[in-house]
Amino acid sequence: MKKGLTEIIDIICYSACANTDDQDKILNKALNAYTDALEMCAILSGDTTSVNKAKECFSVVDEYVHEFTDSAYTPHQHRELIILTCQKCNEELEKLAALSTSSSVSPDATEIAIENCQVAVQDLRRQLIQHTLTSAAELFGSNVDTGLLAALKSSAQEGETDRVDNISSQIRDHTDQIQEISKQLQHVAPTDSFYIRVKYTANYLLSLTELLLSSAEVYSSHGVSKAAAEGYSTMADSWVVLIGELAAAAEELQESLYYRP
């Protein structure tokens, strides 16, 4: 029966994982495009065309940075630091743009301006990754999900429906926070495969959460039913596995950056 329930979970949740049309709409790719544009500025000595292209690319970075920080779970100090760093990038780019329209500017001045833009965007990238990994470590290291599941199971076994409802609300809030961290992991994804892995897992988790809570509700109403107990157990086990997969992805990203030569 447990195998059958697992197959049902896969079928129900698959639709939530099928769409990756927004794969290119991530911050890391926008940062890469802007970095490439700055390299072209260096090759073309900061001419107007190359600088305008860099400004076009940076406008996308700026949009995604604000989307990245627009989360109730992003600490104010983190949000402020990232926004200030993004503004620094814009300031350095505007200085480069001013030089590109000047009739008398030395090659050295242009080179320094481009280097300043590159340093600023490297700092921005570092801030984004540092925030994401710090938030992920705090969230996944708290073991909140383990405590919530234990409380949910205990309440369901005792038939305490009001307590089941209360804990279910907490689990939804916890899942929402995981979704926000997962979105930020997608934004800093170093590869397409990493992005797809996190996106699929997070979407799967979101769908599974409602199945988990529904099974807990049934369990609390039919505590003596072996089928109800087994159904809840299957959902809970799958939920823990998915959270563990997201935590593992964050740890692997941390390790890949730490050990990068």
What's the short version?
The protein is mainly alpha-helical and 261 residues long.
Describe the structure.
This protein has helices at residues 2-14, 27-43, 48-69, 76-100, 107-141, 144-157, 161-187, 192-221, 226-258. With 261 residues, it is mainly alpha-helical. 83% of the residues lie in helices and 0% in strands. The N and C termini lie far apart (49 Å). The longest helix has 35 residues, at 107-141.
Write the layout of secondary structure elements.
Elements: H1 2-14, H2 27-43, H3 48-69, H4 76-100, H5 107-141, H6 144-157, H7 161-187, H8 192-221, H9 226-258
Helix pairs in contact: 1-8, 1-9, 2-3, 2-5, 3-4, 4-5, 5-7, 5-9, 6-7, 6-8, 6-9, 7-8, 8-9
| Helix count, DSSP H or I runs of 4 or more residues | 9
How large, in whole angstroms, is the Cα Rg? Answer: 24 Å
Instruction: Report the end-to-end length measured between terminal Cα atoms.
Output: 49 Å
Helix fraction, binned, reads over 70%
**Elements, N to C (H/E):** HHHHHHHHH
Average pLDDT number: 89
In the predicted model, the low-confidence regions spanning at least 5 consecutive residues are 1-9, 11-20
Label the overall shape. elongated
How much of the polypeptide forms β-strand, as a percent range? under 5%
Count of distinct strands: 0
Question: What structural class do the secondary elements suggest?
Answer: mainly alpha
Largest sheet: none
